[in-house]
Amino acid sequence: AQTVTQSQPEMSVQEAETVTLSCTYDTSESDYYLFWYKQPPSRQMILVIRQEAYKQQNATENRFSVNFQKAAKSFSLKISDSQLGDAAMYFCAYRVTQTSGSRLTFGEGTQLTVNP
Amino acid sequence: DTGVSQDPRHKITKRGQNVTFRCDPISEHNRLYWYRQTLGQGPEFLTYFQNEAQLEKSRLLSDRFSAERPKGSFSTLEIQRTEQGDSAMYLCASSLSPFYNEQFFGPGTRLTVL
User: Fold this and answer.
1) Among candidate residues A96, A100, A102, the one with its CA nearest the CA of residue B103
2) Nearest to residue A38, comparing CAs of A112, A96, A115, A104?
């Protein structure tokens, strides 16, 4: 069974600084997708960034980038120039590549606080 | 495009009662997912529909839980004989085939069982 682990229950960062959230996963599959989702307080979950396992290049989306280490099964999220609006619960998620289902498996989450 | 909507947003019920939640996916999305999120945890998969067919169910979906998606549009999740352990946020997500497209989440229904 696939598992996703986020070892940092809470993180904090100063506004405009950079923070890295960690995620490791366990799978026997060779082809899969990895995601970071953001869940602001009392608001719905939104996709921040995604990474296809077959791609060696790390994904980037504006201030958000990932460090994908396939052999180590590690997938960290770096947030640059942190803003107050980045404060939220962040979930790492995994999805196997297949034509049916495609359920997401989530980690436990990391609560990010951004200090002004 | 109004996004995924869920109703009600909050539900308080007494143990033993039945509850039903509704999810309206994004209009053209043929895939619909239900997840459950307990406090301080990540969402856990419950079940998945492609159009009107329920194609996958988690072991978490006990026989007290039933989900439907008539006509492949909105979906309902019913919990019979609720227990305190059912207290959680129930999230709905939808996506468009093929499988690699993004899942869009609704705001969730928070269930409290007294």
Assistant:
1) A102
2) A112
- Each residue of B55-67: pLDDT tens digit? 889 988 889 999 9
- Integer-rounded Cα Rg, in Å, for chain B is 13
In angstroms, the CA B23 to CA B74 distance is 6
For B13-55, what is each residue's pLDDT tens digit?
Answer: 999 999 999 999 999 899 999 999 998 899 999 999 999 999 8
Whether omega for the bond prior to residue B43 falls within 30 degrees of 0, making it cis, is no
- On the question of pLDDT at A99 being above 60, the answer is no
Whole-number average pLDDT of chain B? 93
- Round to whole Å and give the CA distance between A10 and A13: 10
Residues of A in contact with B98 (CB under 8 A): 99
Contact (CB<8Å) B105/A93? no
Q: Which pair of structure tokens corresponds to residue A20? A: 């890295």
Which of B48, B102, B106 is facing A101, going by the closest CB pair? B48
Find, in chain B, the residue whose alpha carbon is nearest to that of A31: B100
3-state secondary structure of B73: coil
Rg (CA), chain A: 14
Q: Which residues are bridge partners to B70 per DSSP?
A: none
